Amino acid sequence: MKQAEREEVWSRVSAQAESVFKDDDSLRGFLHFMADCTPQKTSNLLLLYAQNPEITHPRTFDKWKEAGRSIRSGEKGYTFYADQEYTKEDGTRGIGSTITKAYDIAQTRGPQPLPPQQHLPEEVIAAMIENSPVPLVISDQLPQGVQAQYVPRQRTIFVRNGMDETATICAIAREQAHADFDAVGSGYYRQAYAAQAYCAAYVVAQKFGLDTSAFHFDKVCQSYTEMSADDKRGFLGDVKRAAYSINWDIQRTFRDLEQAIQPDEFSVAAPKPAKAPKAKTENAPDR
């Protein structure tokens, strides 16, 4: 029964991977979900999206209990792959997965979580530059039509000067994805990862609430429609890995800024020391 359950769940994952590449709307919807949902393995993203595309923060019963939240009465969980430790034949410990149930945060009760902090586009750009995996150079010499380009030989991203903030963020994110793919060391060449980097840029832009209407995925879907379900999962895994890496670097910058020691505008002023009375001077007597 366990084997049959695994095969049935995996067939649902594969079917969703096929469905994602149906057209522009289907791929856009899944990438939007990837941006809004907390980080998950690719199989879970596909599995959860098929069950409810409104999920944003899924955890197992035990993980919610550890976080101090409880599941609301009557809520039904979503099929989910959870990590599970096991003992190998040589006695060492390994990590596998088991099929269980997860619950979205909307299905739980507990203290109201703090809303995510919003950041201005210029703050996002500054954070992308601060923790970029490779140097960024602002250039006035890029060819016409090139917003930004990662140059592997120099391990540098060149960015066109004078673009608006949204175009700048999207262009940098796309090229940082290329730099991430190059760092894997698996025979990188640009065209092989162009579509994945484009999709990763969409996920990053969506995560920060930018206008993503300029993105179009019909060409991506047409180019990859003949891929196997395994290859499609691999494609989405590449997108996820690059987008998560870029977002993690950006968030690291924001965390470092929050932890920096700064003056507090509501600090209590220290009392001024009392002035010592001036000593009286007397005229010396005449002799």
Give an account of the 3D structure:
By secondary structure, the protein is α+β, with helices and mostly antiparallel strands. The chain has a domain at 117-259. The protein has helices at residues 2-20, 24-36, 42-51, 61-66, 121-130, 165-183, 194-207, 218-224, 229-259; strands spanning 58-60, 70-71, 78-87, 93-104, 108-109, 136-139, 148-151, 156-160. The strands form three sheets. The protein has a three-stranded antiparallel beta sheet with strand order 1-4-3. A hairpin with a 5-residue loop joins strand 3 and strand 4. The protein is globular, with a radius of gyration of 27 Å. The mean pLDDT is 90.
Task: Name the descriptors.
three-stranded mixed β-sheet; 45% helix; globular; 287 residues; 8 strands; alpha+beta; three-stranded antiparallel β-sheet
Helices, strands, pairings?
Elements: H1 2-20, H2 24-36, H3 42-51, E1 58-60, H4 61-66, E2 70-71, E3 78-87, E4 93-104, E5 108-109, H5 121-130, E6 136-139, E7 148-151, E8 156-160, H6 165-183, H7 194-207, H8 218-224, H9 229-259
Parallel strand pairs: 6-8
Antiparallel strand pairs: 1-4, 2-5, 3-4, 7-8
Helix pairs in contact: 1-3, 1-9, 2-7, 5-6, 5-9, 6-7, 6-9, 7-9
Quick synopsis:
Helix content is 45%, strand content 15%. With 287 residues, the protein is of the alpha+beta class.
Q: Given the C-alpha coordinates, what overall shape results?
A: globular
Order of helices and strands: HHHEHEEEEHEEEHHHH
Radius of gyration: 27 Å
Number of strands: 8
